[in-house]
Amino acid sequence: MIVNHYPGKLFLMGEYAIMESNQPAIIAAVNRTIEASIESSETYYFESKYGILRGEALFENKHPMKQVDAAVKAAHQYLDMKKITRHPFSLKLKSNLEEDNIKFGFGSSGVVIVAVIDSILRFHSVSLTKLELFKLAVIAQHETSDVSSGGDIAACVYGGVIKYERYDTEWLKNNLSLQNIESDWPKLKIESLNFDAYELAVGWTQKQNITKSFTDSVRQQSIVDKQYYVNFLEEAKRATLSFEEALKRENYDLIKKECETYRDIMKKLGIWAEIDIETESLSLLINDAIDVGFASKISGSGGGDCGIAIIEKENPEKMPYLKKKWSKHGILYLDIKVSD
């Protein structure tokens, strides 16, 4: 049996802007994962919390697990392209990205795609590079109706903290052939960053949010008011690149400054797009962390879900005060670490 764990993600910088090509984001893989176990079987078998598929049912495209369907097809198409004989398998997924069907904002659909593709290929003794696995997962995701920025997939594949710049979306629409996983993708950049000097404190507002409804609102408003959107992208890029430089130089004051800057950018974006990005609970979460002396901001699309504080590992003594403040305001502290 082959067993592997595939991490979820948290955005540190670059939210909303990452919807566009050539925009940077800083993303952390986290220790909330999907465990995938695969072994030989006489017939095909798939199992997850969403159900069980046996035999040809896995390939009939009638089941509701569209990410699984797209991932299995992509993996098998890759095996066919490489003239590798397919063998039936039993694949089981167990997730702790959620608890009691509550989503925290760590992502799941992209992680499922990576887990299924990588497990099937490893089962057939195929090992892709990280970049090839990323590209194959992105192509598979395009077969579903839920196409993300790709940042969730990149974080899952690379682990740790990464700088991610989205590929040219128009180019990819015309080049979705599996053969292109070995080609250069215009504008795509993925770089691992050193985060060893820091750790994350993650608070959950106890309210879930559906990211797509918020990103759709921003997209619609960007058509109405193009100039504001262009200015937003420029401001977001400056703050994200400055944050990246601060990480590389281990300049904590600059990290705090750019978290504040991006918080302000997102609050203004919410007003512009008429969406409640920084809710009252998220404001309390962030202000509590700032009061204690930490860098803090929303992680993700806002409207609920999580906020983060970035903490210097050599100065962890204020963490108990932050946990106490969060608890007082109904913020649930989550024991989250950056996953390698």
Automatic annotation (TrEMBL):
Pathway as given in its UniProt record: Isoprenoid biosynthesis; isopentenyl diphosphate biosynthesis via mevalonate pathway; isopentenyl diphosphate from (R)-mevalonate: step 2/3
EC numbers, comma separated: 2.7.4.2
Protein's GO biological process: isopentenyl diphosphate biosynthetic process, mevalonate pathway
Domain GHMP kinase N-terminal: 74-160
InterPro entries from the UniProt entry: GHMP_kinase_C_dom, GHMP_kinase_C_sf, GHMP_kinase_N_dom, Phosphomevalonate_kinase, Pmev_kinase_bact, Ribosomal_Su5_D2-typ_SF, Ribsml_uS5_D2-typ_fold_subgr
Single GO term (MF): ATP binding
Pfam families in UniProt: GHMP_kinases_C, GHMP_kinases_N
Domain GHMP kinase C-terminal: 245-317
Keywords associated with the record: ATP-binding, Kinase, Nucleotide-binding, Transferase
Gene3D superfamilies linked to this entry: 3.30.230.10, GHMP kinase, C-terminal domain
Protein name (Swiss-Prot/TrEMBL): phosphomevalonate kinase
Native organism taxonomy: Bacteria, Bacillati, Bacillota, Erysipelotrichia, Erysipelotrichales
